[in-house]
Amino acid sequence: MKQGLKPGLRETMTVTVTDDMTAGFGGVKIHPVLSTVHMVYYMEWVGRKILEPFLEEHEEGVGASINVKHRAPAPVGKTVTFVATVREVTENKLVCDVIAEHDRAIVGESEFVQVILPKERLRENIERMK
Q: Tens digit of pLDDT for each residue in 54-92?
């Protein structure tokens, strides 16, 4: 990894909840609010945005774990801001705390862990699974 990735570094991303981001299963809408699935998607994306500038050409990051708590609803039309903050960095691991919030509440919190691997090793791991 390139130098400079340190605890405290932050990245943000803001999205507006749309109908296609709401909770539902099998095409049936359940609640007109941001689904947990979509919340996790943006939590991972904002954490990835932290990592990308620090990857070397031969490296890739992969999600290793995410521990999520969904705290409050975010209705359709609500603007949600995702903030990832680096908590821990090692030679091959990045741990971020991520908060999703809007003007009325914290929507969710997570710990997102990414592992940094050589691209060749990742490719080999994928090939073994075919």
A: 999 999 999 999 999 999 999 999 999 999 999 999 999
Q: CA-to-CA distance for 26 and 40, rounded, in angstroms?
A: 19
d(CA 71, CA 99): 10
SS3 at position 22: strand
**Upper half-sphere CA count for residue 78 (Cβ side, 13 Å):** 23
d(CA 108, CA 69): 5
Cβ–Cβ contacts within 10 Å for residue 39, how many?
Answer: 25
44: number of Cβ within 10 Å:
20
- pTM recorded for the entire structure: 0.94
